[in-house]
Amino acid sequence: xxxxxxxxxxxxRSVTFSACHRLHSKALSDEENLKLxxxxxxxxxxxxxxxxxxxxxxxxxxxxxxxxxxxxxxxxMQEAIMEPLDHKNLDKDVPFFSEVVSTTENVAVFxxxxxxxxxxxxxxxxxxxxxxxxxxxxxxxxETIVK
Length: 147
Hints:
This protein is an alpha+beta fold. It is 28% helix and 28% strand. It is built from 4 helices and 5 strands. The longest helix is centred in the middle third of the chain and has 16 residues, at 70-85. The active site is at residues 40, 87, 131.
């Protein structure tokens, strides 16, 4: 019997958290912020029930049959997503957003960076953040686009 070649698979898990924020850039005037962000620039903020889908990628372990233990992934997501973000004011409670506009794009980057510190190296494939049913950001760790 010949040895079986390694198989790659992607494993995804989702969580939902609630948070509020205000889209406001310190680099812009109040008028420019209002023009750019509209009602999302409300001084009192607004909230979302975010859904986050984390996908890891790796070889299927021949012994366990898993890419990763789901219990471990659940714990990493709890630490990287739920603890710092759930029921928080992103702009006031999360230091990352004191200098970065709390757009969904930047929420995805924050989650990616937080997970990268916890997960085994090279396993994180993508972070998908659903701000609403219609608005979704997918981030795969890219930093810049060469122009």
